[in-house]
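Example 9 (inverse folding). The structure is encoded as follows.
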């Protein structure tokens, strides 16, 4: 994905007012040795920081459908990353460098959103746009002065260009076949009834009527059971 973003940025820097100018675009670290070897005007885009855009992280899984709309796979959602470039112009005269930076600004300002059909390789296959921010608020852990100090070069006018691009998650899971039958409940046996034989359930109204008819006798028997020492004949004489 990173090399494809490099290709996108290089195409942008070679377009617009710089189209056909023959200006060389390099992604090397702009160190003192590199500057000494340079033999012509050029633009340097040094990738100095890569960070995930946590605010755009998605959870769960995404369903992948075929031509008939059937889910055949599930995959993890893409992850978004911010690629920060230090863009500088290199000529013999500072005024010429400023003209180059102005041309770069004019090109990038008109290409803040790059549609999928303009993106190469896997970036275009994802069907997602790429966001380009130029000279925005610097929020990285290191300042540009610290970056120049780490490179061992002299501080130059530069543009902080941040490209936010998706990175595909390659893990995919095969989905199960679609459901073609409804749910069914089968009773194998009930109270000794052989499997497959129909069971006649008693009517609830008749069951409740029988319970009410036997309730007085059940109550009387329960009372006699709670009075020890008395015989059934004594209970009958009392009644």
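The amino acid assigned to each position is listed next.
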């Amino acid at each position: 994905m990173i090399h494809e973003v490099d290709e996108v940025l290089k195409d942008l820097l070679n377009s617009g007012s710089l189209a056909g100018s023959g200006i060389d675009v390099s992604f090397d670290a702009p160190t003192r040795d590199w500057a000494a070897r340079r033999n012509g005007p050029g633009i340097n885009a040094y990738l100095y920081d890569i960070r995930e855009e946590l605010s755009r992280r998605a959870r769960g899984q995404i369903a992948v459908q075929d031509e008939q709309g059937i889910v055949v796979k599930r995959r993890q959602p893409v992850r978004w990353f911010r690629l920060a470039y230090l863009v500088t112009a290199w000529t013999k005269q500072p005024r010429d460098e400023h003209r180059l930076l102005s041309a770069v600004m004019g090109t990038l300002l008109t290409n803040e959103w790059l549609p999928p059909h303009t993106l190469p390789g896997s970036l275009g296959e994802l069907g997602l746009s790429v966001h380009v921010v130029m000279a925005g608020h610097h929020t990285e852990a290191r300042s540009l002065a610290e970056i120049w100090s780490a490179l061992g070069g002299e501080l130059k006018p530069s543009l902080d260009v941040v490209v936010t691009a998706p990175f595909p998650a390659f893990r995919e899971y095969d989905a199960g076949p679609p459901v073609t039958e409804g749910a069914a409940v089968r009773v194998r046996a009930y109270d000794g009834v052989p499997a497959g034989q129909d069971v006649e359930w008693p009517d609830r109204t008749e069951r409740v009527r029988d319970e009410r008819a036997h309730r007085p006798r059940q109550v009387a028997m329960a009372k006699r059971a709670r009075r020890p020492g008395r015989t059934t004949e004594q209970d009958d004489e009392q009644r």
